[in-house]
Amino acid sequence: AIEGFGNVGTFTALHLENFGAKIVAISDSRGIIYNERGLDIKKLIEVKHKTGSVINYKPGKVLPNKKLFELNVNVLIPAAMPDVINEKNVNKVKAKMIVEAGNIVMKPEIEQKLYKKRILVVPDFVANAGGVISSYAEYKGYDAKKMFNLVEQKIKRNTELVLKTSKAKNIMPRNAALLIAQKRVREAMRKR
Questions:
Q1: 166: closest CA among 178, 150, 151?
Q2: pTM of the predicted structure, to 2 decimals
Q3: What is the CA radius of gyration of the chain?
Q4: Rounded Cα distance, 3 and 154, in Å
């Protein structure tokens, strides 16, 4: 399920569909379109472009926006608004994994509650790192293929490191990522 069908949500949905994922729900400012059999993302883009909202997609059930965070899905991707997982809905979250494609999707205490419920949260600064890496690749003059390879290599390596550190130290992935980042900054400062 993806919250938001702007630039980030659309790009995410297209890539996940290309990888074989079944996207069952997408929201925009007017509501959610839900179909447990899956949504055709290219068709959904056309519907959004022609009508102004994902809720006009057929076949599907229209739900209010707040229900997105309560759907029984494997992966939930908040990709639009800040503070969308909060005290009001944290106990209703059924997803096994949350990938923060938006910024400041939840406060640290909410993330801690999800961690205790054994829901994996991929922090925003890990999930959004591809944009920073691609900007570097653009600066270096890489073509699209070389840029995507660089992004894939760095994201995979660092995500694996964050997850291994999280498990080994029994801490949230966000805290593991912060430990790794702090260590890298200290090492760079020592080298200078």
A1: 178
A2: 0.87
A3: 18
A4: 26
